[in-house]
Amino acid sequence: MSPADLDTLQAVTDRVRNNIEKVIEGKREVANAAIGVLLAEGHLLIEDVPGVGKTMLSKALARSIDCSVRRIQFTPDLLPSDVTGVSVFNQDTREFEFRPGGVFANIVVGDEINRASPKTQSAMLECMEERQVTVDGTTYELDAPFMVIATQNPIEMEGTYALPEAQRDRFMARVSMGYPVEAAEIAMLTARNTRSPIDDLEPVTDAAEMSKLIGVVASVYVSVPVQRYAVALSTATRRSPELRLGASPRATLHLIRAAKAMSAMAGRDYVIPDDVYDLAPQVLTHRLLPTIEAAMSGRGSVEILTDVLASVPVPTAGPALGA
Question: What is the pTM of this model?
């Protein structure tokens, strides 16, 4: 990796972030998380109450990149074939033809993913992990880059299905939008008086350039002490008496990949322990399941992970860390 590669990455991510902030004001941390997950070849789950801009953020990121975008509105009657595609018999050629489903795009926006049945949710498992789709015994590769941005409402339970553990584990990070500050909400009233600002968004990069930047992120150096620190965090969640399900090995891998993306966005070609520490809540929390006793005592995944982070020693800075 050359300094020019990092400069290019920072310039492109700045343009994408600024584009997103034209629509979603005052949410730089969430925009950074979305861009970082894309660069780390992961998938993003945005979970929050209705009306705070979950879908708007997804669409703003998608519009900022000149690539193929598909939106899937998850509903109880959505079928797995609507997601993956289906083989249809052509009367003229007397052969079956494959018609691609909604996942055949560079960026797939899955709106209200927890409204689909578990059967339909399971149709996303293969494409999210292996970036391919198998229909009627035939495997179809998905174009790169590929990212699923899913939204869900955590408080409205009627007509929803909780995401299974296998599905949640495939999301690299989970973020919450939160309510806007007063000034941003007032500005929103003015900006959206006549039309949505997302209609005026223009692409500031394309899929080819993003693929190159993904390669740059992959070459970021991760020292052995930092790797051991990430593994120690995951191991601590597995041993916690307050958790009946800790972080998986995939979670550790996602934590390192996300840290590499954030390091590159910060202008560094190496990961420091603080990158791993700062990203742990976004990457690990949604994968953890508290025990019944912990839940009854008011201890959730956030509080338990906070204690885990405090209990694991952080490697000190030095040449071994790449600094």
Answer: 0.90
